Amino acid sequence: MGIFSSIKDAIFGGPAKADEPAKKEGGAWTNAPVVERKSVDEVDVEAQLAAMDGADRLNWRSSIVDLMKLVGIDSSYENRKELATELGRDDYSGTAEDNIWLHKRTMRELAANGGKVPAEMLD
Q1: How would you classify residue 62: left for phi > 0, otherwise alpha for psi between -120 and 50, otherwise beta?
Q2: 121 found inside a domain
């Protein structure tokens, strides 16, 4: 499972909620906090994220680093670069512009997978 899948599962729901931050083991993310799985057309991404512990302390609405932290995924440069590659960008260098692109691209991908995402997070 890739980083985007871990983000999506943490928001859309999946296995029971983990008690510790996500860890990468054998190329797969484990222990990402998740919520109860709902049918894809019902998932309000903003509401799900806002309900997570720590949402009030992080700038997850516009920061890919804070979004990854919120869902329990290591937000290191290497992981952001891997996420960018998964989402179709091979020239990610970690600049502010790259991170803005990555956040918006992640939100667009969540929307493409059935999530309801506010327009301001997609533009």
Answers
A1: alpha
A2: no
Residue at 101 is within a domain: yes
Per-residue pLDDT of the chain (123 residues; tens, 9 = 90+): 799 999 999 999 864 444 445 555 665 555 555 545 444 457 999 999 999 999 999 999 999 999 999 999 999 999 999 999 999 999 999 999 999 999 999 999 999 999 999 999 998
Q: What is the pTM of this model?
A: 0.78
The number of domains in the chain is 1
Q: In sequence order, what are the beta bridge partners of 30?
A: 23
Domain that holds residue 72: 3-115
Residue 99 included in any domain:
yes
SS3 108: helix
Radius of gyration of the chain (CA): 13
48 Cβ contact partners less than 8 Å away, ≥ 6 residues apart: 11, 12, 35
Buried/exposed 2-16: b ≥16 CB within 10 Å, e otherwise: ebbebbbbbbbbbee
Contact between 41 and 32 under an 8 Å Cβ cutoff? The reply is no
